[in-house]
Design goal:
This protein has about 160 residues and is α/β, with parallel strands linked by helices. Helix content is about 40%, strand content about 20%. The protein has a single domain, classed as Rossmann fold. The protein has 6 helices and 5 strands; from the N terminus they run βαβαβαβαβαα. The protein has a 5-stranded parallel sheet, with helices on both faces. Strand 1, helix 1 and strand 2 form a beta-alpha-beta unit. It binds 4'-phosphopantetheine. 4'-phosphopantetheine binds next to strand 1 and helix 4.
């Protein structure tokens, strides 16, 4: 049986912290499905299609699939026959919210286990929200996101390439 995990999130946009978690997850499971939440109520910088394309291009492989979902995550996980949900934890501050979600998900669906993975400490301060803020104010996000994401951010924001490496 294929051991499949779901790595859910907004991924608006994908960061090197996300990539690090995808790589760690794919060493533990036969297949990791990076699942983008479709949430029309939430304003995003990139469309779901753009986010899918970016993730497929940067991280896609025979062990890493990209998909979208809506509704309850645990319903999606069961429909995909996944045994686990992966979430990345950066700092203690992430833990409270993540624990709440993990316990709620367990209550809703005890067959699906949540696994917290720690990204490299090099990315402990990197978040999609801060990346968007820094990039939109003209700061360099080199090293925090894959080069393709940097390119897409520049195109979206109409900013010139960074001079700082
Ligand atoms: O990267 P994010 O935005 O922190 O991801 C949050 C996500 C998508 C994992 C969470 O909002 C989610 O699972 N939403 C789906 C709806 C759901 O299942 N809600 C109950 C969670 S306890």
């Amino acid at each position: 049986m294929t051991r499949r995990a779901i790595y859910p999130g907004s991924f608006d946009p994908l960061t090197n912290g996300h990539l690090d978690i995808i790589e760690r997850g794919s060493r533990l499971f036969d297949e990791v499905v990076v699942a983008i939440l479709v949430n029309p109520a939430k304003q995003s910088m990139f469309t779901v299609e753009e986010r899918c394309e970016i993730i497929a291009e940067v991280a896609g492989s025979d062990r890493v699939r990209v998909d979208t979902f809506h509704g309850l995550l645990v319903h999606y996980a069961v429909a995909r026959q996944a045994t686990a949900i992966i979430r990345g934890i950066r700092a203690v501050s992430d833990y409270e919210y993540e624990l709440q979600m993990a316990l709620m998900n367990r209550r809703l669906e005890p067959r699906v286990e949540t696994l917290f993975l720690m990204s490299s400490d090099a990315y402990s301060y990197v978040s999609s929200r801060l990346v968007k803020e820094v990039a939109s104010l003209g700061g360099s996000v080199t090293g925090m996101v894959p080069p393709l994401v940097e390119e897409r951010l520049r195109a979206r924001l109409g900013t010139p390439p960074s001079t700082k490496d």
